[in-house]
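anyone seen this seq b4? input:
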Amino acid sequence: MKISDYFPKAQSPQNRTGTQRVDNLTSSIARLNISRTRPLNHRQTPNGLVRDVPRNMHGSALIQPSRGMAEKLEQIRENPFVLQCFALEDRENEEIVLLAAKINIDALEHAGPGLKSSGEFFVKVVAQQKEKLTKSRYNPPEFEKLVIVGCNGDETSCFEEVKIRSGFEYAFQDLKSNTELVRKLADIYGIVLRDAAPFLQDDEETVRIAAMSDPAAYAFASERLKDYKEYVLKLLKEGDDDEVIDLIFPFLSKSLRGDAEVVFATYLSTADARPELYLSDEAKDCEEFYLRLCEITNDESTLFDSMSSRLRSIPDFMLKIVKDYPENILLADPSLLENTTFMLNAVLLEVDVLEHVDPSLLNNPRFMLNAIRLKPKSTKYIGQELMKDRKFRAEVEKILKSKEARGSSTTKSKKLPPLHKTFR
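predicted toks r here
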């Protein structure tokens, strides 16, 4: 805009009186002052800061007059986006720009081109972000958001939501293609992989470094590496007890999240891993998967919790996983738990399933007598109410004596207390 645009055009300067010219000049200056103090745009950044700055009537940011460093830093603390109003030399000043980025990483958009092309500058930015943000693996609510979206294939929007940012997105493209720099940054904060060039997201060494730094970075590995079984197994094996590389599991391909070998390698690597939360639907509905699980895991495995409802209602399958782990009876469908034939078959395989059944079943005289006939040790699970039944107790005594007469050992069976003790 020309200066003359601020003056009225109704009269030429030659025809105006001195008083008129002074009045018009005063009015124009007032209009300039109003434009300088135009109210801030009220668009808010995620942390509540106003992202816009004072602008003139054309929407352009007003250049701030030269000030001392202390005053500039104070302005940045109040609103980091005022950086866009600073002179180029100030937008190339590391101290000013790093402070703005620390308050809000998006202020880097207004950094000078010299800084945006400086690898050393982004080393400082990424290190600052690492200190500022809690690593995703140590922040369960944020990590849960990441893995849910990771499994659904929309990682970018999720990372925006939880504000896991490295700042590297504002670097010039040549830096994002610099293998040595990207690996150095990824070793500081793995999420840098998100903004690296595509060929580096497919580079095995770069991805390994990023995943070791922060497993959530695997969300930005190439599709090839997400589905590369041998590479994933090697990563899981490489991580020691102090690493949490096993948390890459939620970001693997659907096929690998249903691969028994990968799941077991993840599960056995550390107690922090919870692959059962992110298994593929195919794995959750696969009998062979859980039978294999019974062979290699202990009876405290939480992987069984992911079992599909269809599998839980198959009698023969449930009996197989109850054989070695009696508490797995709790995974059975309610219809099976109410089926006395199924339950007696379970008792025949492992009497300790009775420790995990509904108390009403333990007070069912017909069921308990049949259980005792199959396994005399069932006596230790007789319900308290049933113990008061004289007729039932007499039947139990007959069964136990019959077993003894035939040479069946009942030394480990529960000895029935005297009747008078049950009525105290």
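The longest helix spans residues 18-36. The radius of gyration is 36 Å. kinda curious what u guys think
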